[in-house]
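Q: Got one fold?
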Amino acid sequence: MADVTASDSALRRFLHGLPGVDAVGLQARAAALGTRSIKTSAKAYALDLAISMIDLTTLEGADTPGKVRALSAKGVRPDPTDPTAPSVAAICVYPDMVPVARKALDGTGVKVASVATAFPSGRAGLPVKLADTAEAVSAGADEIDMVIDRGAFLAGRYREVFETIEAVKAACRRPDGTSAHLKVIFETGELSTYDNVRRASWLAMLAGADFIKTSTGKVAVNATPPVTLLMLEAVRDFHAATGVRVGLKPAGGIRTAKDAIKYLVLVNETAGEAWLTADWFRFGASSLLNDLLMQRQKLSTGRYSGPDYVTVD
């Protein structure tokens, strides 16, 4: 693949030369895949897989160390009555709560993720964004969820967005040479068009993103099946062109087991089975886990336990 990032003009030509998105076709395919049904045995597998892919999240101004510790305990053992229930992939918190989550999760296999770079707006100078990232990484974050400046992207300042992602990626490196994984959030609900979502996906992957992520969960429109399908096509095509595999994280608005399974079908049918792992696909969610647990209990007992049987986070 030619170096399309060598100059502003080359990057712009590449991004605007990407095929235009057939919105009607995209929405129709996402809707059709959403009607797929799965067998009961496959449903049990899908529920556990979805649980293992969750970034269990608390991103509120009222977050306390106690809440983060409680959420971490739930992430490690989501169903205290059933030790076979898998742990979630990660606990996602603000940078100042990373030390609390790190202490609670050490040795459990559950990752610590932290939002950074002036989340959720992305409107801050680069030194602030880098300091935000460095603070989280030094405190023990395994993963950084950064957010792009949508204003810069929509104004066509692609090089600025590209170089910011590169710089944040560099700030994810630790003194021992390892690096926290970088997830790049687009806030797709503010990008206006599917074409912009495709351009943002390729821009972030070219800049070194380990994951691309739909949303912050802080705006009215978050993850949707069509947008997720489009981003799955992007990571699939990027892998085919470069040999580099990039993960995907839809976030915000995915609240039910039924919805989660629809997204897993999208992954399998679009990017392929290789992406059906927490290494390459995540759900950004706070309430989804409870419904997955209730559906899991129903499959094993034949009874629907209801929301009183799970914690309110």
About this structure: The longest strand covers residues 111-116. The mean pLDDT is 94.
